[in-house]
Design goal:
It is a single chain. This protein is 44% helix and 19% strand. The protein is α/β, with parallel strands linked by helices. It has a domain at 52-206 and 434-448: 2-Layer Sandwich (Nucleotidyltransferase, domain 5), CATH 3.30.420.40. The protein is globular. The structure holds alpha-D-glucopyranose. Alpha-D-glucopyranose is lined by residues 74-75, 141-143, 158-159, 194-196, 215, 217-221, 248, 250, 282.
């Protein structure tokens, strides 16, 4: 096939990934509708986007002080942190990452919480904190129905976790019990929070305009500051006009709102996942799935003889589910224009001998279409939230491995947001620094003050 022909065929294959503004504006409209359904008492139970109340109503002033422990479960890594808030918007953080094996991720809930408590104890011993009584903020990044700052019932596992015995249980209680079973540390769990809330709080610690917290990492979600009169399921104490709402927007699309833009690859990913039918928006965006989408498209392109030789060991390697990691997408797009150093290395590691520049150009194009679609889909929900908040200027705190590691995600997202946010509203994206740690400490600090 001639180069031009290859290019043409590859463009045609990827066409369905390119969403135009008419489609994106329709997604905006549907997303806003879902947000409102989540907030309203009458429709909450049926809504895809649940808009859970976080019970966090005070944003940090920057003058918080004190030492707090934090746990961060639900991202790429599990971490234990010691956070020292030092006023003047400053904080010191000591942290350690611990592995969570596949076995623990899908084994009994008790084992998961025992493991967490053990890591906490090991960390405290190492930091010489074993004799201290500290308050802890638990960043638990899964959908939870909270009934207070220290009570959160897990609605469902997401992102490959599936430990029996935790759904519908209060995870704070499970953590407290595991700590008690050990009996060697003196910790009070004073708050449970989502990673998006942590991100919002940590950015608001430095910038008071930050009213949205977004994660584009293993999963994808956002929270925002909503007026209490719009949150029908929340009975706010007097004098507190706002509350942070955890949208759990990864679930958007479960009732079919995204079917008009989903591709066959999205459907395969969903079918083969641990939670079919769930987290539809998240599966089109987040790091847990992005590499897998690219892998499926590559296989299709090879099958259609659009690129790379057919047959042989390399196809067997690529045919292995999850063999194409999301970080490869970032690495391929990080190659300088016209150079394919990372791309060639990745393809050669799969066993493709001597990939040509033409092949690499198409592989890169496929990656760009997939990551750009993800960024544009995120832009839709972000613009909707900014327009809904409707302030002169909103800062969006953002974190997550995809956002951090992908060389152009920020650019793709911001460009599209400029087109979707109402022209009279200003916005900026702010990279969060350790939201799950500093944010957890800040929430813990608002409780104990
Ligand atoms: C998943 C979780 C959500 C979390 C997000 C990012 O969507 O359900 O709670 O915020 O991943 O980690």
């Amino acid at each position: 096939m001639s180069n031009n022909n290859i290019k043409r065929k590859c463009r045609a294959l990827m066409e369905e990934f390119i969403l135009d503004n008419t489609q994106l504006l329709e997604i905006n409209r549907r997303f806003l509708n879902e947000l409102n359904r989540g907030l309203c008492k009458k429709t909450h139970d049926q809504a895809d986007v649940k808009c859970f109340v976080t019970y966090v109503q005070d944003l940090p002033t920057g003058e918080e002080i004190g030492r707090y422990m934090a746990l961060d479960l639900g991202g790429t890594n599990f971490r234990v942190l010691l956070v020292t808030l030092k006023a003047h918007h400053e904080a010191d953080i000591e942290s350690k990452t611990y592995a969570i094996s596949q076995e623990i991720m899908t084994g009994p809930g008790v084992d998961l919480f025992d493991h967490i408590a053990e890591c906490l104890a090991v960390f405290m011993k190492e930091q010489d904190l074993i004799d201290e009584h500290l308050h802890l903020g638990f960043t638990f990044s899964f959908p939870c129905k909270q009934v207070g700052l220290t009570k959160g019932y897990l609605i469902r596992w997401t992102k490959g976790f599936n430990c029996p015995g935790v759904e519908n249980e209060d995870v704070v209680q499970l953590l407290r019990e595991a700590i008690k079973r050990r009996g060697d540390i003196n910790i009070s769990v004073v708050a449970i929070l989502n990673d998006t809330t942590g991100t919002l709080m940590s950015c608001a610690h430095r910038n008071k305009n930050c009213h949205i917290g977004t994660i584009i990492g293993t999963g994808c979600n956002a929270c925002y500051l909503e007026r209490v009169e719009n949150v029908e399921l929340f009975d706010s104490p007097p004098g507190k006009p706002y509350v942070i709402v955890n949208a759990e927007m990864g679930a958007f699309g479960e009732s079919g709102a995204l079917d008009f833009v989903r591709t066959e690859y999205d459907r395969i990913i969903d079918r083969n996942s641990m939670n079919p039918g769930k987290q539809i928006y998240e599966k089109m965006i987040s790091g847990m799935y992005m590499g897998e989408i690219v892998r499926l498209v590559l296989l299709k392109a090879i099958e259609q003889k659009i690129l790379l030789p057919k047959g042989g060991k390399q196809i067997k390697n690529l045919a292995k589910p999850e063999s194409f990691e999301t970080r490869f997408v970032s690495e391929i797009e990080a190659d300088n224009e016209g150079e394919y150093t990372n791309c060639k290395k990745i393809l050669t590691d799969f066993g493709f001998s001597k990939p040509t520049n033409e092949d690499c150009a198409e592989v890169r194009y496929i990656c760009e279409c997939v990551s750009q679609r993800a960024a544009h889909l995120v832009a839709c929900s972000q613009a909707t939230m900014i327009n809904k908040i409707d302030e002169g200027h909103t800062t969006v705190g953002v974190d997550g491995t995809v956002y951090r590691l992908h060389p152009r995600f920020n650019e793709y997202m911001e460009e599209k947001m400029k087109e979707l946010v109402n022209p009279n509203i200003g916005f900026n994206l702010m990279l969060s620094e350790d939201g799950s740690g500093r944010g957890a400490a800040l929430v813990a600090a608002t409780v104990t003050d």
